């Protein structure tokens, strides 16, 4: 197990800066997930940690030791790739043993480690098969087993489940999480799938364009996003956003009006805002109440009925798209007119200029300050 520290990490390619001075500390035993859209630098950052990419600037430390110039084989890390990277001419047993044989591990120890990993990952009956005889999920277990037998200080996963079907991805998420609980090693996991991030991580690093947007626990990022990008990326379906302008603001309350003339009052610190300033109101789909005769007039554009839950895709008169999610089934139909009620305690507010979130106040806190 190990503590990883990234101090001002930079990656430059010819004419391009892909990673911009990242500072990050990953504690011993943490399951840390790098998440973000394609091209945000998450795999590049993982490969620099692994020693597969040179570090242009900054310092990478493992347990306090600078490792920028150490080869990948000297860092005590093990990586699981998206493509499995198994040797097709070798059996599962031989694939698991290959890395240990290269570093001249004694045969008895290789046999013990391979057997232990096979039992842990429930692939004992597959040891004499070759990769072409395995399913996608079985191949991924073997790829993980090849990392496990090395007994690394840190496991690195580079989008390991992206080639699997949806049902198998869910099963493998549980298996990797269970592996982390059993081993207790530090794990760093790269994905573009925020559902994977939310369900597996102790801590999430949200990346955009080679920069860290926010770092914290899954629920902290969900409940207290630092900016509009994080608010829209963490959560499925994504948060609803409504453009508005400020009509009044102080240290405890902000009043805004949207393009449909609807007024919202939020318990937020608006001391930095001025009348007429452009802002964005956010509310998550599960906090929209559809129906009744109060709230924002909307029309239902489409509906997804999944049995135990429903999604309504709606539109306001000005063309703003809203998604509502609720438990159970709905009698509403496409084309229905209704109202969307925005509950004050669930509203977020972002500056239009830079997307930064304003600090929300609890309703009780706002009342006490007022």
Strand order of the largest sheet: 6-7-8-3-9-10
**Count of individual beta strands:** 20
Provide the low-confidence segments as ranges.
none
Instruction: Summarize model confidence as the mean pLDDT.
Output: 91
Distance between the termini: 50 Å
**CATH architecture designation of the largest domain:** 3-Layer(aba) Sandwich
Q: What would the CATH topology of the largest domain be?
A: Rossmann fold
Q: What structural category characterises the helix and strand content? A: alpha+beta
Number of helices: 9
- The ordered H/E elements are EEEHEEEHHHEHEHEEHHEEEEEEEEEEH
CATH class of the largest domain: Alpha Beta
Give a quick summary of the entry:
This protein is 25% helix and 34% strand.
Could you characterize the architecture of this molecule?
The structure is a single chain. The chain is of the alpha+beta class. It has two domains: 4-232, P-loop containing nucleotide triphosphate hydrolases (Rossmann fold, 3-Layer(aba) Sandwich), CATH 3.40.50; 237-369, OB fold (Dihydrolipoamide Acetyltransferase, E2P) (Beta Barrel), CATH 2.40.50.100. It is 25% helix and 34% strand. It has nine helices and 20 strands. Strands 6-7-8-3-9-10 form a six-stranded mixed β-sheet, sandwiched between helices. Helix 5 (166-183) links the parallel strand 7 (154-158) and strand 8. The longest helix is centred in the middle third of the chain and has 18 residues, at 166-183. It is globular and about 75 Å long. The model has no long low-confidence stretch (mean pLDDT 91).
């Amino acid at each position: 197990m190990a503590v990883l520290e990234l101090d001002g990490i930079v990656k430059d390619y010819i004419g391009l800066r892909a990673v911009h001075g990242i500072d990050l500390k990953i504690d011993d035993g943490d399951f840390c997930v790098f998440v973000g859209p394609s091209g945000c630098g998450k795999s590049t950052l993982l490969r620099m940690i692994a020693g597969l990419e040179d570090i242009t600037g900054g310092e990478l430390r493992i347990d306090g030791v600078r490792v920028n110039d150490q080869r990948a084989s000297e860092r005590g890390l093990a990586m699981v790739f998206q493509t499995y990277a198994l040797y097709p001419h070798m059996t599962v047993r031989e694939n698991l043993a290959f890395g240990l044989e290269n570093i001249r591990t004694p045969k008895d120890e290789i046999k013990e480690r391979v057997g232990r990993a096979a039992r842990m990952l429930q692939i004992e009956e597959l040891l004499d098969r070759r990769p072409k005889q395995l399913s996608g999920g079985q191949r991924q277990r073997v790829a993980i087993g090849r990392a496990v037998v090395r007994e690394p200080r840190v496991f690195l996963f580079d989008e390991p489940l992206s080639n699997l079907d949806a049902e198998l991805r869910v099963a493998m998420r549980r298996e990797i999480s269970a592996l982390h609980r059993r081993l207790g090693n530090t794990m760093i996991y790269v994905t573009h799938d925020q559902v994977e991030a939310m369900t597996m991580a102790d801590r999430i690093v949200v990346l955009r364009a080679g920069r860290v947007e926010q770092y914290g626990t899954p629920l902290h990022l969900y409940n207290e996003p630092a900016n509009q990008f994080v608010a829209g990326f963490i959560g499925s379906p994504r948060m609803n956003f409504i453009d508005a302008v400020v009509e009044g603001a102080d240290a405890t309350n902000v009043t805004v009006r949207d393009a449909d003339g609807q007024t919202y009052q939020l318990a937020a610190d608006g001391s930095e805002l001025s009348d007429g300033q452009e802002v964005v109101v956010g509310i998550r789909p599960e906090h929209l109440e559809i129906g009744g005769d109060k709230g924002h007039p909307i029309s239902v554009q489409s509906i997804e009925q999944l049995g135990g839950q429903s999604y309504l895709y709606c539109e306001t008169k000005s063309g703003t798209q809203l998604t509502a999610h609720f438990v159970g089934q709905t009698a509403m139909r496409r084309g229905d007119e209704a109202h969307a009620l925005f509950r004050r305690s669930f509203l977020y507010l972002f500056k239009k200029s830079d997307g930064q979130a304003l600090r929300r106040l609890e309703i009780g806190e706002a009342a006490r300050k007022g």
